[in-house]
Fold this protein.
Amino acid sequence: MATTLDVSRAELALVVMYLNKAEARDKLCRAIQYGSKFLSGGQPGTAQNVDKSTSLARKVFRLFKFVNDLHGLISPVPKGTPLPLVLLGKSKNALLSTFLFLDQIVWLGRSGIYKNKERAELLGRISLFCWMGSSVCTTLVEIGEIGRLSSSMKKIEKGLKNGNKYQDEEYRAKLKKSNERSLALIKSAMDIVVAAGLLQLAPKKITPRVTGAFGFITSVISCYQLLPTRPKIKTP
């Protein structure tokens, strides 16, 4: 039987494992960034300074991260995936990879290494449009995949007839995937609003405070998605 100390060690090990991930640290900083944006409401002050400094710091975490989506772009897709979903998925990879690549130039500009500020700002705006486009693609992919899972789950229900569907391992696995994709759908849809806010496409409706609120929520969702699986510990 595990002692309280064993449980504490296991929990602390999970925290260490979580914080060792560069992606997790990036999302935690993202939560701070957008939380500060919400508090500042676009007004000068301490909160806005935290927003700007955290935004710049996060770009370091994303150096060369564009390679990940570049790899996803050229990787084969699972068999049986409908062509529209394949094209949307590859478009997402291409747009996100472009966003992350251009974001490095923005970082160089804001750090003072790249001297052409006007071009850096232009590339920064283009990169945000790429991120917005990738979020749209992700949203459509998630909708399509949730539809496929729903259809598959209905077939399992019919096959079980009078059996308890929640006792079927395959059904539970698909239900878990469906819930995960539903959460990803909410995040990607909200990120479209965040991108529109950063681009100031509708400044009267999507204010800095709205952008901050949506960004903070999607950051929390991202942090949750990165949580490691908790091991089962027998307690006395």
Observations:
- The two ends are 6 Å apart (CA to CA).
